Amino acid sequence: MPPSVDSVVVPPRGHRVRQTIEQLRARILDGEWPVGGRIPTEPQLVAALGVGRNTVREAVRALVHAGVLECRQGSGTYVVSTDELAPVVARRLTDDRMTEVVEVRRAFEVEAARLAALRRTPGDLAALDGALAAREAAWRGGRVDEFVEADAALHTAVIAAAHNGMLAGLYASVGAALRSTVAQSMGDTLEPERYVDHSRLVEAIRAADPERAAREAGAFLESPVRA
């Protein structure tokens, strides 16, 4: 016999909304709805998630407020970020906060370099060598945008070699802001005086020398903004 209406447990409305937010977030993180792509329409979400229109509407509104989704009049709702912290950091990134951004970079990157020297694996060293070579090639190519991405990839490889999941997640959240500061410091062209050699950092990590690795990572960030 099917359960009666009275015996069916209906979660409180707030709980249903939270569950729906988590379902939407999971699909975004899994890549089902990539950044820049449009999510299904409200009726489609209702059918797919098995909840009411109001629940879907509130969950979408929450993710819009968090900066993960963006509603575009007459077009639909789009994914603009996979991370709720990244838009917050981006909004705070202004010229008068450049010093603060550099301080945040130091907090992440110096400790990451120290940990990487202690924990790096052969796979990490191979990734660092590849990222360093790509960074050098990007500099020789002369395109600022390509160099900024290659520089970010090298720093991300150092973070990964630290083998600290929380540190990696936080660094990913502020990655766009950090790349923006590097791009601003480079200007429109790659000038020789702005070049910073990162090979000593990689060698310190390879040598399992945490103090030297931390020192090399910090040296990049002594001036207002360096890559």
TrEMBL record:
<dbReference type="InterPro" id="IPR000524">
    <property type="entry name" value="Tscrpt_reg_HTH_GntR"/>
</dbReference>
<dbReference type="InterPro" id="IPR036388">
    <property type="entry name" value="WH-like_DNA-bd_sf"/>
</dbReference>
<keyword id="KW-0238">DNA-binding</keyword>
<dbReference type="InterPro" id="IPR008920">
    <property type="entry name" value="TF_FadR/GntR_C"/>
</dbReference>
<keyword id="KW-0805">Transcription regulation</keyword>
<feature type="domain" description="HTH gntR-type">
    <location>
        <begin position="14"/>
        <end position="82"/>
    </location>
</feature>
<dbReference type="Pfam" id="PF00392">
    <property type="entry name" value="GntR"/>
</dbReference>
<dbReference type="GO" id="GO:0003677">
    <property type="term" value="F:DNA binding"/>
</dbReference>
<dbReference type="GO" id="GO:0003700">
    <property type="term" value="F:DNA-binding transcription factor activity"/>
</dbReference>
<dbReference type="InterPro" id="IPR036390">
    <property type="entry name" value="WH_DNA-bd_sf"/>
</dbReference>
<keyword id="KW-0804">Transcription</keyword>
<protein>
    <submittedName>
        <fullName>GntR family transcriptional regulator</fullName>
    </submittedName>
</protein>
<dbReference type="Pfam" id="PF07729">
    <property type="entry name" value="FCD"/>
</dbReference>
<dbReference type="InterPro" id="IPR011711">
    <property type="entry name" value="GntR_C"/>
</dbReference>
